[in-house]
Amino acid sequence: MALAHRRNGSTRRLRTAGTLAALTMGASLLAAPQAFAAGPSQAELLKACNQASFCAFHPQSYWGYTGPKHQVGSTAYNCGNNTNQHRIDWSDTTTAGNTLGVSVSATYKFSLVFEASVETSYSHTWENSHTDTESNTINISPRSVGWIERGTAKQQAKGWWEIQFKNKYYDHYVWYIYDFQQSGFNKDNPGYGYVNFKDRKMTSAEIGAHC
Asked: Three-class SS of residue 211?
């Protein structure tokens, strides 16, 4: 009977008060991130490894893959009526990159930490910059244009960062960066890469410009 009695207006008042409290709490939660607006960005945190008392990368996964196709070297034109050979010299540099867009170089401590962690965890050599230089001779059909297409062998690791400071850094001693990914040249598995010789018929504009 007591439960039945609470179905009157007092219950409605309680529900209304509860609803207002929930709305107020919800508004507070939505506004909360503004309090941290002055905090460091993830990129700033990564750079701050230089001054941290402890900076560690905890790898969670690793994989090799083929990078996007791109042209290397110059474009060659065959204006003759027979298939001709053309030599194309090319140089292609692959640099490491990460999801935070922070330059990967010896200037930043995180670069060395990441490299050592990946090599220890997965027994793969890590290079932040790698350059390949080659010279190839390709056969180009009559009235055609030829070029060299390359897909670079690459590797990528994903994990999270733990960064500690002796003195508070933006009001905290410990910071974390999650879902961090970095890619680079795959020296240990060059089979992921390829070099293809390509050609196609020249357009009328190309014939006019090169022949």
From this structure: coil
